[in-house]
Amino acid sequence: MSEPSKPQGRKFQLPEHLKVYKDVWVIVEQERGQVHSVSLELLGEARKLADKLGVAVGAVVLGEAGPDLERICGDAFAYGADVVYRVADPVLKDYRTDPYCRVMTDVVNAYKPEIVLLGATTLGRDLAGAIATTLATGLTADCTELDIYMENRSLAATRPTFGGTLLCTIQTLAYRPQMATVRPRVMAMPERDDSRTGRVVDVFPALAEDSVITKVLSFIADRERNEAQLAFADIIVSGGKGLGKPENLKLVFDLAAVLGGEVGVTRPLIQAGWATADRQVGQTGKTVRPKLYIAAGISGAIQHRVGMEKSDLILAINTDKNAPIFDFAHLGIVGDALKILPALTDAFSRRLSVNRLAS
Amino acid sequence: MHIVVCIKQVPDSAQIRIHPVTNTIMRQGVPAIINPYDLFSLEEALRIKDRTGARVTVLTMGPPMAENSLRKALSFGADAAVLLTDRKFAGSDTLATSYALTSAIRKLAEEEPVDIVFCGKQTVDGDTAQVGPGIATRLGLQQLTYISSIDSVDTQAREIVVHRRSEGGVQVLKTALPCMITMLEGTNSIRFGSMDDMFRAARTPLRVWSKDDAAADETKVGLKGSPTVVSKVFVPKPKAEKAKFIEAEGGTADAFAAAAVEAIFAAQPKLSTDLLARAAQG
To answer: In what residue span(s) does the Electron transfer flavoprotein alpha/beta-subunit N-terminal domain sit (chain A) (predicted)?
Structure first.
């Protein structure tokens, strides 16, 4: 990576009083006792950054006191933390912006980390935007690469912009902490090491529930709902106009069922009433990033493309070998989706049932 | 009831091209549109207006040509529009932008208190999702991001109940006004404005505010007010090549399918273990 160019007319030196900021922190995201995998990935990344800087990795674990919180503190050590800041309070049981932001602002001001990382999730992006404002510091969203420029010990956060047509590297030079969010599955998951331990710093924020205006009335888990959960699906099979008629969408559902995946569609199918809006993938629908995306009868219009091109692996099926989808899919089949889809359903179910017998 | 909807005029990302020699964005001829995510919030604001008779003000910060987006928003049914424009705002990052917009919202609130601020979930050019939370934090508004539905707005009790997307499920939240809301994509579609609204949009005078009109502190906007520094901009390595076409003996659907399954598992070995593990669990 080349040296950063420095625009004129601004201060880029870290003021003396901010030089006491040390350590690389990860705010560990947990909801209802489940740690989000992105937090563990970030601990691995924080470890690399901290080793470069010669500082410690701190993990902030917030929630209600109890066995879940204890287990998560253990996980934080196992994935790379040296210090765990354990923030236990009944008010922190469910995520709400205001109490989480208040507590994190206080903890950062008290312990002064130089870098604070969060997952670019609904929680992480909500919280990071609030904390960066109370701390009046720089925040870089949705980074795909983090590095340290050693000459000034600053975080170089690289992120896509303009819908991924450009990458830019962003730094926060004269403010601390330097904050960044990173999307799930961008960074590699570190090896778990249960022999690792560290120091626990207990923080008792003593929050009053009366002081929190927003109340959580209930939580509806995705598995209890019928709505499509595209944004979080590992596997998505999508259909487009090439399927010809609404009945043929069943072939897409069949393949998705065998793969344990979700079904997506293009905007024209929503407009034609073949499927409900919760299944639309694209610029005005959902942005998805599954491990496998199978596009059947989809030409690959930019509207659809921007919603799915970051998928790990894209298999496109289209009769037209010049369809734009083949410009960015990884694997292509030139053929009739109506014939290929059932054949794929068969091939996958055979492959997966063979293993079930063997295991 | 007064609602402010913050919108941004953005280049239509579908039509952005990179100059092959200079590696810079070619903006010429790229149409400017209202950030698509903002339209879900604008529509939701207009629905509240339909139900409660609320007044909807659209606000944008940008160059003078952002007037086009404000006129468009008026044509959908917004009542008033403010264009916050000043050379001093150039180069503002999200912290400085949220400061500038907050200054303008404070100014609007002096005329008529603001009950709800709507922002887009994120923009299609910056993609940061930071300006909404920045405004909420500065104004002390209850922060409601990733809202998939607004169940009720009680203007008497000043209470609002919403569904908020979170990881693994939906939170049902009840809070008090004033609040800041960002709507999830796909939750509604922007209406066609009525003929009356279109005529009104063309006639409505825009309020054009400078930094001083919004009483914004010069040291907190533009490059000076921005903690982040863009140190490098570059074009990602182009995608290696076109899709690898799967060949199949005889060209039957079954042969293609078998070859495709092998190719998928070869490319993503971890996917195969995940799938097999899931299948083994039944």
So the answer is: 24-216
